[in-house]
Design goal:
Length: 296
Amino acid sequence: MSSIAKNYETIRIEKGTSLLRDALYRLKKNKLALFGLSILAIIATASLLTPIIAPYSYEEQDLIYGPQSPNKEHIMGTDDLGRDLFTRILYGGRISLMVGVLATIVSLIIGVLYGSIAGFLGGRTDNIMMRIVDIIYSLPFMFFVIILMVIAGRNIYNLFIALGAVQWLTMSRIIRGQVLSLKEKEFVLAAKSMGVSKGSIILRHLIPNAMGPMIIYSTLTIPTVILEESFLSFLGLGVQPPMSSWGLLITDGAQVMEIYPWMVIFPASILALTLLSLNFVGDGLRDALDPKAKKD
């Protein structure tokens, strides 16, 4: 074998990589993010399978024994009406997670479209659209949500819309900034020179290239929305009985926490664990999708 062939065999050929592969590599090395993903997967799976794994109906009452502390039959005890708390936490998780995800989707759609249009058009249009955002920003978020709920009615679907309608402002600013930096890139200028419409450039070129910040902020919006829903339930404007959410369960438990502490400890712990996991995942995605991060 010639020396050239030997030298060729010793050359280490490095496989090509991509931004997505690098992001997954960095995410896998983030133990807190993996921990958060594992916890969220368990909670989401349990919520989806609630009708199968729940030991009781969320409306089933045991008025004979009344509130019971955690025992073999009720591992998290029962509430003041004798309803199994573990069952109600499972059903409450479906509502809380659904509110968080759907309201985030609403805010994502509004914020991405609004911010991308403002950033792409620029000039006077951008200035007017951003001043509108500033005006809405000056209003107290929760006060605005309460007004929407009172006007539209206390309905769970109106709750999705109301919470999503006040979370799009920051998303619009983030996407606007991304579009401002992208619209002068070569691929956008090439699309303009080929006569591609403005709508197509926004939807097919600009928005896909701003996916990183969109994903990161979305994971951080979900816990914010869940907390806001909990606060609305605390005020009596959220989910209405006999349905339950974690916020409503915490509200009910807080009223009798001195006598029946388990009624507030368990739902509050599950809510705190979920919010913490979402923040871990959001931080992990931010680090993984950061284009300036160095490959280890």
